[in-house]
Design a protein that fits this description.
ten-stranded mixed sheet; about 40% helix; 2 domains; Isopropylmalate Dehydrogenase; two-stranded antiparallel ribbon; alpha/beta; binds adenosine-5'-triphosphate
C-alpha cells in the first residue's frame, strides 16, 4: 500500500468547512482506489491561533510541514486582524520559505456550468495560468517610513531575478508543451514598467528558444483582460508575474462560473519540500458557518494534489466525479445557482465516485 502524509491547514473563515469536505472526499477516493492511503494530520493555525499566541503558526511550523508529502490549505484572512498580517503570517509564510515558486491555476468551464460569457462553452475556455509565486511585488522588499508625516513613503519593490524569472518561464513552457495545443501566452507590462518587465520579456526571448515546438505570444496585462473575455478560445497556457496572475486568475475564476470552483497548486517542482494545494477563494466571511460554501475548489485542488503525488488515476476519477455532479445539475451549491449545502455537494461527489448516481 502506498502511504502519503498530508498536513491539513484549514486556516480561517470557510477554510475549515471546505477542507473537511475535501478530506472526506479524499478518503473516499483512496478507499475506492485501494492502492494508497492518506494519513491526514490537522493543524489549527490561523487567526484564532494568532489571537491566543501572537503569531499565526508556531515557530517550528515549517520544520513540521517539511516532513509531509503535501499540504492541503484552506484560507488565510479574518476581519479581526489586518489582511497583510494573516496573509504574510500564514500562507506566504509557508509558500515563500518552502520556495513553492510555481503557482498553477487551471481554469475551465466544468460540464453543465454556464459561465457569464454568452455562447462560450467548455471547449472555448480551458486555460492554465502559471503564476510566479516568489518574486515581483510580493517578494517582501519595501518599507514604510515617516509615518503620519506629509512626506510619508510606502513602497513595495517589484523584484525580478534572472534565476526566478527563468525557472517560472521554463516551468510554464514545459507545462504548455504537455498540453495538446502546445501554446503559451506571456503576460507583460513592458511598455510602462521599463526595467523589471523588459527584463521579464528579454529572459523569455532566450528561454523559449529551447521550446521550438511551443507556440508563444505576448500580451500586455491590460489587453489580456479583454482577450480573456472576448476571445477565450485563443488562450491555452498563460504565464504571468505574481501580481498580474493574481488579478487575472480571479477574472478567470469568475469567467468559469464562480470563485468557489477554482483550484490552485503552489508547487515546489524539485520536490525537496512539500507543495501546497488550496482553493483560490478567500475566507468568505459573509457565508462562514452557514454550511453553504462551495467545496468544488477544494475538491479540484485535492485532485491536483493526488496528481502531484503520482496518483493520476485517482486524481482523474475525482475530477470525473465532480464533473458528473456539475453536469447532472441537480445538486449544485448556491454560488452556482443551486441550493445544495456543502455537505450535500460533498455527498453527491462521493456518490458519483462510487458510481451511485449514474
Ligand atoms: P481574500 O482577500 O482572502 O482573497 P476576498 O474577500 O477577496 O478574500 P473571498 O473570501 O474569496 O474573497 O470571497 C469573495 C466572494 O466570493 C464572497 O462574497 C464569498 O462569499 C464568495 N465566495 C468565495 N468562496 C466561495 C465558496 N467556496 N463558496 C461560495 N461563495 C464563495
Amino acid at each position: 500500500m502506498r502511504e502519503y502524509s498530508v498536513a491539513a491547514v484549514p486556516g480561517d473563515g470557510i477554510g475549515s468547512e471546505v477542507i473537511s469536505a475535501g478530506i472526506r472526499v479524499l478518503h473516499a477516493v483512496a478507499a475506492r482506489d485501494g492502492g494508497f492511503n492518506l494519513n491526514v494530520e490537522n493543524f489549527p493555525w490561523g487567526t484564532d491561533y494568532y489571537l491566543e499566541h501572537g503569531k499565526m503558526m508556531p515557530e517550528d511550523a515549517l520544520d513540521t510541514l517539511r516532513a509531509f508529502d503535501a499540504i492541503y490549505f484552506g484560507s488565510a484572512g479574518d476581519p479581526r486582524v489586518p489582511d497583510h498580517i494573516s496573509l504574510w503570517g500564514l500562507r506566504l509564510a509557508i509558500c515563500q520559505p518552502l520556495d513553492q515558486y510555481a503557482n498553477v491555476r487551471p481554469a475551465r468551464l466544468l460540464p453543465g456550468i454556464q459561465g457569464p460569457l454568452r455562447d462560450v462553452g467548455p471547449e472555448d475556455l480551458d486555460w492554465v495560468i502559471v503564476r510566479e509565486n516568489s518574486e515581483g511585488e510580493y517578494a517582501g522588499v519595501g518599507g514604510r517610513v515617516h509615518s503620519g508625516l506629509a512626506d510619508e513613503v510606502g513602497m513595495d519593490v517589484a523584484v525580478f531575478t534572472r534565476s526566478g524569472v527563468e525557472r517560472i518561464q521554463r516551468f510554464a513552457l514545459e507545462l504548455a508543451r504537455s498540453r495538446p495545443r502546445k501554446k503559451l501566452t506571456l503576460v507583460t507590462k513592458s511598455n510602462a514598467q521599463r526595467h523589471g518587465m523588459v527584463f521579464w520579456d528579454d529572459v523569455f526571448e532566450k528561454v523559449r528558444e529551447d521550446f521550438p515546438d511551443v507556440e508563444t505570444d505576448k500580451m500586455l496585462v491590460d489587453a489580456m483582460t479583454t482577450r480573456m473575455v472576448l476571445n477565450p478560445e485563443s488562450l491555452d497556457t498563460i504565464v504571468a508575474t505574481n501580481l498580474h496572475a493574481d488579478v487575472l486568475s480571479d477574472l478567470a475564476a469568475a469567467l468559469t462560473g464562480s470563485l468557489g470552483i477554482a483550484p490552485t497548486a503552489n508547487l515546489r517542482p524539485e520536490r525537496d519540500a512539500p507543495s501546497m494545494f488550496e482553493p483560490i477563494h478567500g475566507s468568505a466571511f459573509d457565508i462562514m458557518g452557514q454550511g453553504i460554501a462551495n467545496p468544488i475548489g477544494s475538491f479540484w485542488t485535492a485532485a491536483m494534489m493526488l496528481d502531484h503525488l503520482g496518483e493520476t488515476v485517482a486524481a482523474a476519477s475525482l475530477m470525473t466525479a465532480v464533473e458528473r455532479v456539475t453536469a447532472n445539475g441537480d445538486i449544485l451549491p448556491r454560488d452556482l445557482g443551486g441550493d445544495a449545502s456543502t455537505e450535500q455537494v460533498t455527498d453527491a461527489v462521493i456518490d458519483a465516485l462510487e458510481g451511485r448516481n449514474e
